Amino acid sequence: MNLYESPPRYDPPPPPPSGMPRREDISHLDTLAVVHYVVGGIFVFISCLPLLYLLLGTILVTGGAAAAASEAARHAHGGMGADPAQFALVPAALGGFFMVIFGLAALFNAAIGVGIILSGRFLRQQRNYIYSFVVACLMCLSVPLGTILGVFTIIVLSRESVKRLYGRTF
After folding, report:
1. How far apart are CA 18 and CA 28, in angstroms?
2. Are 43 and 109 in contact (CB under 8 A)?
3. Which residues contact residue 129 at a Cβ distance below 8 angstroms, ignoring those fewer than 6 apart?
4. What distances in angstroms separate CA 115 from CA 70, 84, 112, one per listed residue?
5. How many CA atoms lie within 13 Å of 141's alpha carbon, on the beta-carbon side?
6. Which 8-state DSSP code applies to residue 83?
7. Whole-prediction pTM value?
8. Contacts of 52-57 spanning 24+ positions with Cβ under 8 A
């Protein structure tokens, strides 16, 4: 081959007939669906972690921690009892704050996880194109797994052949 010759020309394979879906597209959508199930499951599992703080907030609100500390202080001081003003440092308001904030965090993460799992189901069924596309865009905000999965989902959903699978013409 001469240095000034052009390299051999690469011709991509011809597209399948218009009514026939490409196996590669269906395979990519199925793979993305499985990964959506896994990432959604991880989100749902992580949503259980704030429940520990929710439990801590419940203990603070009900006064369980103050009663246990009062009992421990009474035994430590020879049964004299402890000054109730000491335990004003752990107000029930802090427990309420824990309950609200971490309860909302748990619900938020669980909702995201269920939304991702639902998107995986829609990818497998090749329906609700817009929903899967929007979820893929939102997943890009969740670094690093969500970003990787979101970008690959956007790439696959942007193909013309995949849009035809969904019945989209735009």
Report:
1. 19
2. yes
3. 157, 163, 166, 168
4. 46, 48, 5
5. 5
6. -
7. 0.72
8. 53/98, 53/101, 53/102, 54/98, 54/99, 54/102, 54/103, 54/106, 56/95, 56/98, 57/94, 57/95, 57/96, 57/97, 57/98, 57/99, 57/100, 57/102, 57/103
118: left (phi over 0), alpha (psi -120 to 50) or beta: alpha
Cα distance between residue 70 and residue 89, in whole Å: 13
Q: Is the peptide bond between 144 and the residue preceding it cis, with omega within 30 degrees of 0?
A: yes
Q: Cα dist. 112→46, 50, 106 in Å?
A: 11, 15, 10
Phi, psi of 50 (to 5 degrees): -65, -15
Q: Angle at CA 159, nearest 5°, toward 112 and 144?
A: 35
The whole-number mean pLDDT for each consecutive block of 10 residues of the chain, a chain of 170 residues, reads 72 64 89 97 93 83 64 59 54 79 92 97 95 97 93 95 82
Could you tell me the end-to-end alpha-carbon distance of the chain, in angstroms, rounded to an integer? 44
